[in-house]
Amino acid sequence: MVEETPMSQMSQSRALIFAAVAAGLLYLVGSIALGTPPKATDSPAQVVEWFQAHQDAARTYAWTAAFSGLAFAVFAGIVRGLLPSPVGNIFLLGAAAFIVETTVQAWIWAALALHPGTLAPGTARTILDIANFWAPLLTGADLAMMGAVTVLGFGERPLIPRWLFWLGAIAFVEQAVETITVFGSHGFIAPGGPMNLFLGAGLTLIWLIGLTVWAVRSLSGAPQAAEPAS
Q1: Which of 23, 30, 113, 181 qualifies as a cystine partner to 136, CB 3.0-4.6 A?
Q2: Is residue 114 part of a domain?
Q3: pTM
Q4: Does residue 1 lie in a domain region?
């Protein structure tokens, strides 16, 4: 194994920050482009009307997803290097699932926007329902990533600081509860509804920011683990 020099650690730290910021900005641009997408309760005709009016927006969202997937892969690869096995491998598998599921969801949106003038309303509604279940099922990938890091906070000599442990524990519990959106059909717990896109996404984003802070500090050599329990 090649020993890392302070310079290589600094390069990884910069790459991690750049990848995290790039992934976040690309996701933000894609979300802004979509604006207010069709809801799970919208009629088939409303779905078709939305894609006819927002054809470019949906394809822009898919375009940003392609690059954000690359950025998140760089981020995940660097973070995995800071985690011991086997939890590091679990984290990486969760991150890979996150990228794949998000990419599939984005290409479904782009496909619906390719020929919106010929979309049959019933077909459009069904295909969009498939894309909407991306959010409830993405919780599994989130749980893998969060659990792999959070478990390092257990024991008398935790490998992560207490603040990251509690942040991960809260986000993990919320994501576990959020799996109920699989059974939702309208309102707060609808697939692709507020619980997925606001509460869950918000807590996941906060956790990812916390993970980035910890990883950057780890690469810089700053003390990270909490004090052993007395």
Answers
A1: 181
A2: yes
A3: 0.90
A4: no
Residue 148, pLDDT above cutoff 60: yes
- Does 225 reside within a domain? no
Checking if the pLDDT of 44 tops 60, the result is yes
Distance between CA atoms of residues 221 and 225, nearest Å: 12
Residue 230 lies in a domain: no
Q: Of 81, 74, 87, whose CA–CA distance to 9 is shortest?
A: 81
What DSSP state is assigned to residue 199? Answer: I
Query: From the DSSP assignment, how many helices (H) and strands (E) are in the chain?
Result: 9, 0
Domain that holds residue 102: 6-220
Closest-CA residue to 51 (of 133, 42, 144): 42
Tell which residue, 201, 179, 199, has the closest CA to residue 191: 179
Domain count, the chain: 1
pLDDT at 147 over 90: yes
Is the torsion defined by CA of 136, 142, 148, 149 positive or negative? Answer: negative
- DSSP one-letter string for 6-36: HHHHHHHHHHHHHHHHHHHHHHHHHHHHH-S
Which residues, at least 6 apart from 168, have a Cβ–Cβ distance to it below 8 Å?
146, 147, 149, 150, 153, 160, 207, 210
